[in-house]
Model the fold of this input.
Amino acid sequence: MEREVRREAERWLAAGEAAVVVEVSASQGSAPREAGTRMLVSSTQALGTIGGGHLELKALQTAREMLRTGELAAHDAHYALGPSLGQCCGGAVDLRFERLDAEALARWPQVAPLFHLQLYGAGHVGRAIVALLSTLDVEVDWIDEREEEFPAGDMPAHIRKLCVDGVESEVRNAPPGAFYLVLTHNHDLDLRISEAILRRGDFGFFGLIGSRTKRQRFVHRFEQRGIAADAISRMTCPIGVEGIGGKEPAVIAVAVVAQLVARVQPGRTIPGCTRATKDGPMLASGCAAPSPPADRESAPSDRSAADPGNAAAPPPGPCATPTA
Done:
């Protein structure tokens, strides 16, 4: 993750760890990474990636030679990926090599998260989704009223576990344009959380686990309660991109995380959704992905707490105290 690499650079600098910052300063044609991508290199470690392959191997060799010889003056190098390195990308890349110091860190911009997600539900599917999100530059509030459902141990800094009663009240604490996923163990709880999200109305994405039948029942109740039709139409249920079928939690997680990332990646599309743009997601009324199998709501995270299928849940773990 780009943000974690920069945070590690701060720690290395504070500890006096000698390192070189390798930055893609420019790219032309088909190149593995875009301009502004950075990699942090010490004599024994390398964090981040400028795209792998022979290009990255050469960059690592150059950076470590700088550290070995003490010749740490900043310099640039141009690589034609095909003629120079035998890579079939066909493009060209300019790399800048500079010593990690306060000036280099100041020029290293803070990377904004792809999105801020409120994830409701720490069941099997919720845990599988969090496992994938732990590797991405995102911010996640992982919310459940059952402390014992959270996995033991610490989470990455960008994933915060919140154990609260009345979990639907957490909706008001999300930033404008936040993403929401609702996949708790109880349909009545799903309904309360979903109603709070729809009444707030400023969500960037709202996905509810369930079948088409569940969607129809929820929509009917929302209409009875006077929720605006345009807000209801933006609810995505079922969740997950088209073409990834299956009820296994890990498979559902892949489909759902792909759907989330597609909403913020310029030029990326998913069936049934208006494309994202360079200025952020362009939201469309009725932007729901084509339906996965109709009974996906029977996936393990959608069971009741009393279901013996939850008996294999991970052991109890610590739960962060929520902050206002």
About this structure: The CA atoms of residues 21 and 40 lie 5 Å apart. Confidence is low (pLDDT under 50) at residues 267-324. The first strand starts at residue 20 and ends at 28. The longest helix spans residues 53-69.
